[in-house]
Structure formats: C-alpha cells, structure tokens
Amino acid sequence: MVKLNDYFDVKYGVNLELNKLEIDPNGINFVSRTEKNNGVSAKVKRLPHIRPIPGGTITVAAGGTVMSTYLQPSEFYSGRDLYYLVPKIDLTTEEKLFYCLSLRKNKFKYSYGRQANTTLSTLEIPAKEDIPEWVYHNNVTNMLTDMLADLVTAEEDDIDEKPPLSVLDEEYVQVEQLFHVYNGIASSSVKRYESKENSNFIPYIRPSKNQSTSIDAFVDKAEISDKYIFPKGTLYVSTDGQGSHTYSYVSTFEFVPNSNVAVLVPKYKMDLVDKLFYAYCITRNRYKYSYGRKPKGHRLKELLIPSKVSNDYKKYSMNVLIDSWKEKLNIK
After folding, report:
1. Which residue ranges make up each domain of the chain?
2. pLDDT of 61-88, one tens digit each?
3. Burial zone of 303 (CB within 10 Å; 0-12 exposed, 13-18 middle, 19+ buried)
4. Which residues form the Type I restriction modification DNA specificity domain (predicted)?
5. What is d(CA 67, CA 140) in angstroms, rounded to the nearest whole number?
6. For residue 281, which of 266, 264, 303 has the smallest C-alpha distance?
7. Given phi > 0 = left and psi -120 to 50 = alpha, else beta, which region is 38?
8. Residues 6+ apart with CB under 8 A from 284
9. Domain 165-327 carries which CATH code?
10. In whole angstroms, what is the distance from residue 55 CA to residue 73 CA?
11. For 18-27, 69-78, 288-297, 316-325, which range has the lowest pLDDT when averaged over its residues?
C-alpha cells in the first residue's frame, strides 16, 4: 500500500457555484459532488478568466456524497468541496479507473459531518505493482464491446430470421407488424422495495424522459409472474405522463415494467442497433401525443415505422456507438 499523495498531486478545484454560471449545452462540463452521471451536473459556458481543470484527472467529492470518485475524460469546472488528482506517475486509463474504485471503497470512513478533506491525501491505495491482473485483462475497450454484444437478441427457434416480403416490400409498417406489444403490471399488484437487496431483485420501470431516471423501485422476481419479467436488450416505451410519454429505450438490465410502460418484443431477429433505431423512430413521433392522447393500445400498435434498417446504417451506427464511448472514456 502507498499513500495517495505518493502517486497523485491532490488539488482543490476551482470552487464555482452552478447557479451563478450560464448553462450551455455545447459548453464545458461542470463537476459537482453528485454520485450520478460521472459527477457531471451540467454543461456551462466557459469563463474567459478561469482556466478549466484538464481531462485525464480524477475528481473526489470531499463532502456531500463523500468519496464519489470519477475519472474525467475531458476538461471541466468544479463546484465546492471537490478535489482533483493529477497523476505523478504514468497511469493507463484502466489503472486510473482502478484507483477510482479503490478510493470509493473508503467511503465508509466518512459521513456528512466528517468530510474527506484533511485526510484525503494520506489515504492508502494499492501500489501500482500490486494492481490485480484482471484490471489489465478486462480493459475498457473489451468490456464495452462485450457489453454491446451481450445486448444482441439471443437466437430462439420460434423467431424468424427476417420479416416476410409482404413487410419488407413496404417502406413503412405498423409497429405490431414487427413487434409483439405487451403491457406492464400495475404498482398496486406488486410489492416494491427501495433498494436491490440481492441478485434476485430487479428494477421496476416507470415512464421517464430519461432512461437513467426510469427506475421506480425494485421487485423480487420470486414474487412476479414470469410474463412480466423481460431480459436486458428489450425495447420499452413510456405510454403515459405529460413529460414522459413516447420516450423509448433499450434496457441494459433485466426489468419489470409498470402499467404505463409498453414492452416491444421483436417478431423477427434484431440486433442492438435495430432496436436502438426503432426506439429512436418511436420517440420521434412524440409530437402526435399528449397527456390526454396517450401512445397506448392501438395507437402504439398502429404507429408507422420503417420496415427495415439498412446494413450500411447498422455498420455505421455500431462504429459510431463504440467510438463515442471510447472518446468519452479517453481510450486511444
């Protein structure tokens, strides 16, 4: 074990206040003490008199959600009680991520009344030569590729390879020609839990504008009928809510939908890009609906979508997807 300041210069951030900055979707990341979204709370307009903190550094929350630790792939501004770590030695992306994990494991030592400020620089972390081998064998690029491949629909005997010509010959077809549409289960019919108590607990999904906020609670699979349990890689649609209806996503985990979420199960074999494409198409039809005119039942089933996804589009999209994540993670 070594002390943190043996490997890193521990520096206090620029200490800005988000409510005094101008939000800019094309601006620079603002990193705060949050434990969500890699610590990024917003994108803000650059300030001519304040130099951003460079990318490739690690941020650590000394207060708030104390010890929330992330590798920042691009330059950023920071809020109060946030430290950043500049490596003194050469470290790969995988090694930096390992040290993020190591620091988060120290969260139990702190609380809202005991912040990680004076003691942060002397926290002990594993020496570089003692970093486990799995850190290098499971590099970020391979993990990302495996994750994407794992979302491809598994082969099943009762699913046809492709739609019949009567479907493929059409430019647009109804949703129900490509997908089976299933409704979720009402919250009054399930027992909900605040946290994931063990591996048998899975998310209970609600309508949401953002996929990251669509988890309403957790449910025990042993208490739910199998017909309401859907695997990761499943396309689902929000069918209610003024600010949530019609937003569509592909799940990255096993889940149970509530009664205001419709699940679309392909009638024919589809890979990840196919499902992401159709989720995008459905979301783009949001203007047709409102809180009083929901995309439920026949309205969703009869919604027109393209009959097929071209191979050129699929190849291009998968490459873009992988390249964008590699850019976010600063992988060469």
Report:
1. 2-131, 165-327
2. 998 889 999 999 999 999 999 999 999 9
3. buried
4. 2-123, 171-302
5. 22
6. 303
7. left
8. none
9. 3.90.220.20
10. 5
11. 316-325
Residue type (1 letter), 252: T
Torsion over CA: 120, 126, 131, 132 (sign) = negative
**Cα–Cα distance, 317 to 281 (Å, whole number):** 14
Q: Which of 190, 142, 193, 176 is nearest to 302 (CA)?
A: 176
Regarding pTM above 0.85, the answer is no
Summarised one tens digit per residue, pLDDT across range 129-179 is 999 988 887 665 666 666 555 555 444 445 666 667 666 678 889 999 999
Do the strands 23-31 and 76-78 form a parallel or antiparallel pair, or are they unpaired? parallel
- 3 state SS of 177: helix
- 203 with 184: CB under 8 angstroms? no
Q: 93: Cβ–Cβ under 8 A, 6 or more apart, which residues?
A: 71, 140, 329, 330, 331
* 2-131 CATH choice from 3.40.50.1970, 3.40.50.12780, 3.90.180.10, 3.90.220.20: 3.90.220.20
- What distance in Å separates the CA atoms of residue 1 and residue 261, rounded to the nearest whole number? 49
Number of neighbours of residue 28 by Cβ within 10 angstroms: 19
Residues 6+ apart with CB under 8 A from 21: 30, 42, 44, 45, 47, 77
- And the tokens for 95? 């090694």
For residues 85 and 88, what is the distance between their CA atoms, to the nearest angstrom? 9
